[in-house]
Amino acid sequence: MKISVVGTGYVGLVTGTCFAETGVTVTCVDIDKNKIDNLKKGIIPIFEPGLETLVRKNVEKERLFFTTNLKESLDEAETVFIAVGTPPDEDGSADLKHVIAVAREVGQHMTQYLVVTTKSTVPIGTAKKVKAAVQEELDKRGVKIPFDVASNPEFLKEGAAIDDFLKPDRIVIGTESEEAEKLMKKLYKPFLLNGHPIIFMDIPSAELTKYTANAMLATRISFMNDIANLCEIVGADVNMVRKGIGSDTRIGSKFIYPGAGYGGSCFPKDVKALIKTADEHKYNLKVLKAVESVNDRQKEIIFDKINSHFKGHLKGRRIAIWGLSFKPNTDDMREAPSLVVISKLLEAGATVKAYDPVAMDETKHKIGNSIIYATDPHDAALDADALVLMTEWQEFRVLNYKILAKILKSKVIFDGRNIYEPNEMLEEGFTYYSIGRKAINL
Length: 442
What we know:
Elements: E1 2-6, H1 10-21, E2 25-29, H2 33-40, H3 51-60, E3 64-67, H4 70-73, E4 79-82, H5 97-109, E5 114-118, H6 126-141, E6 147-151, H7 161-166, E7 171-175, H8 178-187, H9 189-192, E8 198-201, H10 203-234, H11 238-246, H12 267-280, H13 286-298, H14 301-309, E9 318-322, H15 337-347, E10 351-355, H16 360-367, E11 372-373, H17 377-381, E12 386-389, H18 401-407, E13 412-415, H19 422-427, E14 431-433
Parallel strand pairs: 1-2, 1-4, 2-3, 4-5, 5-6, 7-8, 9-10, 9-12, 10-11, 12-13, 13-14
Antiparallel strand pairs: 6-7
Helix pairs in contact: 1-3, 5-6, 10-12, 10-13, 12-13
């Protein structure tokens, strides 16, 4: 079986590589020649555990190919996945110009029956626009080539994308025809053999499922952050509250960990897009608007704690930051809470020295040399007035208190992810602030 995947960003590259791993012949397409040349050499543009190894393996096995030529990729392909970016417009709606451009090019070059499948996260109605764009180009050519459209949203977690694709909780596919459904069943057969459920539905429902899933997870995060802030006011411990509600099987323990706010490529963008879709249909998604508002405010909480500790006198202070990416096991800096904290610290006159295992190059692309980039965690903490934990990378989880006591100018730690124990901080003589728990002030 042969397929084409257009777009070699996070979704497209993971999708193409994982399908190749199941024995499908995959051609990945991108207009960026430099990116394609690097991929042919096994150099991937993103950090995702295990992905580079799989790319190299499947290129060597001649199951995975890369090209800038979409026409070439359609030769004998049974389906083409559109996995290009859908960045938010200024009004929050998803920008579909890249998706429609691919659809038009498919219509210009297809020569046999094809299922045109959207893999990008797209709003309701996109499949109709894709279908219209393909048909318009076929009409211009004066040819009658049958095709179907389908929606196959991705549910990948950055940092665990390979497992998520190869061992999915569920596979959601929206189709309009039995022929398209039959083809998608054939493509996903290796996953069905392992017992992973495939759910077929109408296309609008499939398009909405992805947005709804991310919106629900974002809601859980913002809800718990709101409760965490209340815990601090009333003297409760949010970790105890979290355990108490997480043991309820109707609620569960996932995505109820308080912190410095959510970021990344999906939650912020998808929440905005879903709100915009509802607004366009004259429906007010009040809950989601509150979710977004709470998250925007949560990203400032750590700065507020730092500013309060130093009584508003941050000018000339040196602040160490551990972790820059929006979550561990990725170099993704999109909507990262660390960027908000850094911006406010710099605005207040502080100097920031930061360390992240993989995201410092991406940070430089975002904010340049406005901060100092450390060579390791202890280099970041040297002579700092405070240490701020923003991303819960594994290497930050166990502290060497003796070294930190020697190299920090002040034994003050702000924990934006609640990975340290207050009682341990007290025993070691550190002033400690976290989210939704009583501060340790010495």
